[in-house]
Amino acid sequence: MNRRRVGPRRGWAAASLLAACVLATAGCGGPGSAAQAEPAASPDVDTALHDRLPTRVRDAGVLVVGTDPSYAPMSSYAADGRTIVGMEPDLAADLGDLLGVEVEIEDTPFDEIIDQVEDGRIDLGMTAMTDTPERARRVDFVDYFVAGTAILVQRGNPDEIGSLGDLCGTVVAVEQATIQIDLIARQQDRCRGRQIQVEEYATNSDALLRLRTGRVSAVLNDLPPAALLAEDRRTRSFYELATREQYEPGFYGIAVRRSDERLRAVLTDALERLVADGHYDRTLRTWGLEAGAVDEVLVNAGR
Fold first, then answer.
1. Cis omega (within 30 of 0) on the bond before 73?
2. pLDDT tens digits, residue range 284-302?
3. Is the whole-model pTM more than 0.85?
4. Which residue segments constitute the domains of the chain, with CATH numbers given?
C-alpha cells in the first residue's frame, strides 16, 4: 500500500501551470477569490481547532486521506513513482498544518473511497469526487472546488468530435464510479439508435491508455486533468480537448463519514480559514487551478 505522509509546505512545482490558460478560457464555473497578500509558507496551528478534533484523531496525530493518484493536477504520482503530489495533497497538508496533525495520503481506488470512509479505514476521501445527491446519501461532503466534464481525444481529433452529441456511435473510455458514466447515460437517450459504447476502467490512467493507442474515440475527464494532458509537453502530442465546453460543472467535496459530525464541522471551519487567509488561493495558483476556486465553503451543496 502506497502512502505519503505530509507535514510542512511541499515544494514540487507542477507542469499543470501550463494548463492555467486553458482552464481560464474554458471557464471552470467557480467564482474567483479576491487578491490578497501572500500568506506564510504554512498555516500556524490553531489550538482551538485542534482541540475540537475527534479524540481518535488527536490521539493518533494523523488524518488518513484516501485519493486516487491517477488524476493530475488534482492528485498523481511524481516522477519518482512513489510520491503522491497535486493540489489535493497540498491542500490536505495545509489543513493538517492548521489542525496540528500530520496528513497521510493513501493510494485508494476511486470506487472504494466511499466504502473506506464509511467503514473507517480512512478518515477522509479527497480525490476530485463530485458532491452528488447519490453519494451524499452515504457520506457528507465539505466542498472545496468546482469543475465539470471535458472531452479528451487523440491529438488531431481523427473522429472529428466537437460536442457530446458527436460521441453517439463511438467508443468512449471512462474511470469506474465517476459522474462521467451518468453523463453518458443521459446522452444515450439523444443518440437515437447510435449508442455510445462505454468502456469502464479501474483508473483514469487505464482509460487514457486506450485513447492513446487508438482503441477508443474519447475519454471523458474533469476539465483540470483533461486540460493538463492537452497542454503538458509530456502528453500534448497524444491528446487534445475536443471542445472548450465544460459539461455539468459541480462541486468537489472532501468525503467524511456521516456519523462524524465533529470532524466535518472542524474541517469546514479549517477550510474557511484557509480561504480567508490566502493559503487556499496560493495552493490553487501553484497548480494553475484558480478558475475552479470557491469563495465560500459549503457542506453537501450537491444535495
1. yes
2. 999 999 999 999 999 999 9
3. yes
4. 3-146+249-292 (3.40.190.10), 148-248 (3.40.190.10)
